[in-house]
Amino acid sequence: QVQLVESGGGLVQAGGSLRLSCAASGRTGSVVILGWFRQAPGKEREFVSSITWSGGIRYYADSAKGRFTISRDNAKNMVYLQMNSLKPEDTAVYYCAAQISGSRSYDQWGQGTQVTVSS
């Protein structure tokens, strides 16, 4: 299994920035993709961004394009989500998730970190 621990959430004013971090441990050699998801109160969890562990190929939801940047540090087993120009609608719990080799879905999840953007 892979264990994921998020950090970096907090309260920020609209227009501000935050950088979320996700530390991976355990069988990190089995990780194919690491992604960020978020869930706002009363809403379903949604995809934000992902990066392939080996090739660094990035994907973004439309809501994240141009404002968020995902990156990885394989040596440290870390994935980051730099969030700029934050909006109140970005308020949510942000989760890091991993898709491991042989799996077709994200099946390893962190506990989440709260991001609150005030207007």
Distance from first to last alpha carbon:
40 Å
Principal-axes shape call:
globular
Fraction of residues in H or I helices: under 10%
Let me know the number of strands: 11
Mean pLDDT score: 96
Helix-strand topology string: EEEEEEEEEEE
Backbone structural class: mainly beta
**pLDDT < 50 stretches:** none
Largest sheet: 7 strands, mixed
Count of DSSP helices?
0
Describe this structure in words.
The chain is mainly β. Helices cover 0% and strands 56% of the residues. The chain has no helices and eleven strands. It is globular and about 40 Å long. It starts with a strand and ends with a strand. The model has no long low-confidence stretch (mean pLDDT 96).
Please render the helix and strand layout as text.
Blueprint: E1 2-7, E2 10-13, E3 18-26, E4 31-39, E5 46-52, E6 58-60, E7 68-73, E8 78-83, E9 92-100, E10 108-109, E11 113-118
Parallel strand pairs: 2-11
Antiparallel strand pairs: 1-3, 3-8, 4-5, 4-9, 5-6, 7-8, 9-10, 9-11
Key features?
119 residues, mainly beta, 7-stranded mixed beta sheet, 4-stranded antiparallel beta sheet
Q: How do you describe this structure in short?
A:
This protein is an all-beta fold.
